[in-house]
Every structure is written in C-alpha cells, then in structure tokens.
Amino acid sequence: MRGTPARDALDGAITAIAAAGCETPRLDAEVMLAHVLGVGRARLLSDRELSVEGPAVRAFQNAVRRRAVEREPVAYITGTRGFRRLELDVDRRALIPRPETELLVEAALELEQGARVLDVCTGSGAVALALKDERPDLQVSASELSEEALALARANAERLGLEVRWLHADLLDGIPDDFDAVLANPPYVADSERGSLAPEILRHEPAAALFAGTDGLAVIEELLCQLAGRPRVASVAIEIGAGQHTAVAQRMRTAGFGHVECRSDLAGIERVVLGARRR
Question: Per-domain residue ranges for the chain?
C-alpha cells in the first residue's frame, strides 16, 4: 500500500499546529517530519516522490499530537537542538538552549589563552561544550544543582568527545576558588510572570531552571554574593531577563567588578551583563 505523500502529510500537520496557536507551524511540521523520516529539510521540500509510510505514519501523527495538543516544544519531541556548531541531545531534564545564550559563549571566546572557566547552571551543558569546542585551549568546568540535568550534560560531552569537568553543586558552594572567569545562565524569571509564559515553557521545561523569586533576581544575587568573596575570579558574564540589566549591573559592581557592560540579543534586549575586576 502506497504511503501518504510527504507534502500532504505536511499540509495536514501545519493546519493542526497552526490551529493550536503555535507561532511557527510550518517550521515545526517540517522539522518533525524530517526527523521522523531521517532526511534533511531540503529533501523534504524538493523530493516529490517522498512519502510517509509504515511506522513513520504513527510516529509523525504522535509528534503532531504532542506539538498541537500538548504544546510540547519541538526540541523535546525530536530530542535534539542545535547550539553554535553542536547538535545537543535535549529533554525535560534541562532547559532547551536558546540562541540568545550564545552571547555567553561569544563573551568567553575573548578570554586569554588557557583561562580557567566555570559555567554555572550548565543545564544540558550547551555553553560549556560550545566553548570547549571553539576554544579547546580553555580549561572548562561546569556546575549544576540538578543531578538529572548534569547526567544529560555528561552524556552530551561523551557523545561529542569534549572534555569538560562536571561538578554537582549549588552555584559555587563547595567549588574550589581556582577560576579566572564565571559564566551563568541562571533562573531569572519572576514568579509573577508565570501566567505570561508560553505553554511550551510553562508545561514542559523544568521550573527550577526558570523561576527565581518575586523579582527574578534571587539566584543572580546569591551568585554575585558568592563571587564577592572570590577575588581571584577576574570576570563574570550572566544572562538576564528583559529589564533586569540596571539592577544586575549595580549588584555586580557591589560584588567588586568595577567595569560592567551589557550586551544585547538580536531582539535588542540587554541580555548579558559582563563584569571585570579592575587590576
């Protein structure tokens, strides 16, 4: 029995995903069908003979249901997410890496040869692994409170063949004071913003990696408080939420980082605050 033409399957999926209110129904459907069929998106769109048949029919139907009905993120459905030059395994144990988080990597690429770097709240390991991939000379470590997320990060490192030292810790607690730079993508969403988050985030991504008190700054404040007592750390870069840059910059200066600057993401939001100690 001949299967359903891929283009027809795509059209049906796009209609269902769009009706559910998802922002990018065509892209979502194409990524999921390409994943199910094991082909690239280019072939999906160019090969008129391509069809969906056998086990792929049920697999694609299930993927569309998860996206349209459960509003599950595409990255969790396919189990992968691209970040910088890497293809990472992702699941509900950790946040899905976002493009704006690449700003942390870009900031760390400016570090001196052989610098010792700690990636705090590493999640899937995206920042630490991308940095080690692009700057193999750096001594990269990463810490994470969630043992489940840390297991995911370790698995990504092993599959990619990248050497990172993994540490189970709550921010800097119990970690030796032997780093030149600290990077962090900590929880920074205010509790009051829960209702404004997309279903994809609120229903599926780990809440512990998202929310940080009434103003979203609880974890950042604790990290900077710890860094205030670690003068050997010469620089820090922290990802923040929209509108938090002034408060975080002030706290960073209080922690001893005399030179502070902000860098914006592609949407123009001040997304990363960088601090350096005056020497």
Answer: 4-70, 91-276
**Residue 67 — pLDDT band, cuts 50, 70, 90?**
very high
Tens-place pLDDT, residues 109-155 = 999 999 999 999 999 999 999 999 999 999 999 999 999 999 999 99
This prediction's pTM: 0.92
Pairing of strands 116-120, 181-184: parallel
Residue from 141, 193, 195 nearest 169 by CA: 141
The Cα–Cα gap between 197 and 194 comes to 6
Q: Does residue 1 surpass a pLDDT of 50?
A: no
Residue 2: which pLDDT band, with cuts at 50, 70 and 90? low
Q: Give me the CATH code for the 91-276 domain, please.
A: 3.40.50.150
* In contact, 83 and 105? CB cutoff 8 Å: no
CATH of domain 4-70: 1.10.8.10
